Amino acid sequence: MDFDLKTNEKGNLVIGGADTTKLAEDYGTPLYVVDESKIRENYQRLYKAFIKHYSDFKIFYACKANTNLAVMRILEQEGSSIDAVSPGEIYTALLAGFEPSRILFTGNNVTDDELRFAVASGVKINVDSVSQLQRLSKITKPSNLDISFRVNPKVGAGHHEHCITGGDLSKFGIMEEEAVDVYRIAKDLGFNPIGIHAHIGSGILDPEPFIMAVKTLMDVAGRVSNEVGIKFQFIDFGGGLGIPYLPEESKLDIELFAKEITNLYKDKLKEYNLGKPYMYIEPGRYIVGDASILLTRVNTIKQSYRKFAGVDAGFNTLLRPSMYGSYHHIVCANKPFAQPVQNIDIAGNVCESGDLFARDRPMPDIQEGDLLAILNAGAYAFSMSSQYNSRPKTMEVLVNQGNSDIIRERETFADVLSKQNVPIRLLK
Ligand code: LLP
Fold it and tell me: In the predicted model, is pLDDT for residue 227 greater than 80?
């Protein structure tokens, strides 16, 4: 996999037509840089790959990957719908201009208040448990709601065990063997379920488990439809489509993937006489993952028992390497193609030993003051950032055709403290 790096005449890394070294000078670091046209390209490539095989197809962007409003606006313009997993994500999607009918709420372990919020917002609700279903029936008139169920198809996949959401260890969804009974309970309570859903995990580069899950979900849908008399309006296969993070990984062959999934889908629709329901998928990472980089400046070169390059971002800014041991490719922004001359640890500024962006990474010569670009920082990057160590959250800019706009201001210390109160007795 080559990471499709572009440089200008100065040899500096360019993203969205903008010189990364200039962006870092103008806005400071750490800095997330989001490439608008890359998001649009990713969306369109995926959409076109499926729509040509099956016309009733929709993408529900899993906005947990990146909830920046500008990113959401871009995807609204492209025609996407939204997979939301919390009231906050529903709120964000509505604010970004998505009609409630274009939002599917897939909560897990949701409270009654959260259910009330979803109902009041008018979004479709993807139910995760019988408990949730029963509580929902007390909150609103069941016949007024568009619901589906999340089914655990017993197969799971993902880049890390935390990211596998199918199989017998997973907390998500209803068991596939109980699906018929659960849909029956829903009908008895007065619901008219219109959909069925599965999401088996995240970061899948091998299509096999995804295809197995599609098969299982279609068989479940067939049973439910025939035994309970449900006419499905949509069947949702969730997200999980991976992107290459490691240089030796290859991209998912999306054309082949879409062809296989849609062929299987159409065969199973026929087999069970399911009509022509919409096919939904819910990618997050595939759409935004490679559309952003994180720029961070080296402030310390230190030879301890090992050699470290210390930078001004940390796991508060990008958690994935510490949380999952994830590999993110890192290049020097002023010489992205320079050959490695050393193995070095690239360490963040958080006060924990696990705060490493890379261990023993082959890198070119790095000096204090150099700018590093951490690639593939568009998904689960800013959205998982925190204020740990009382560090204000960082800035995001959107680049397009060489122009840049701030899409999130850098937080201040006051922002970090803004919700705290000290009881008066402690002020004496
Ligand atoms: N649909 C549902 C119901 C999900 O739970 C998720 C992700 C997706 C769709 C989108 O998955 P994607 O296409 O982005 O793989 N923080 C982890 C990833 C966690 C994903 C959680 N659910 C990471 O940084 O890799």
Answer: yes
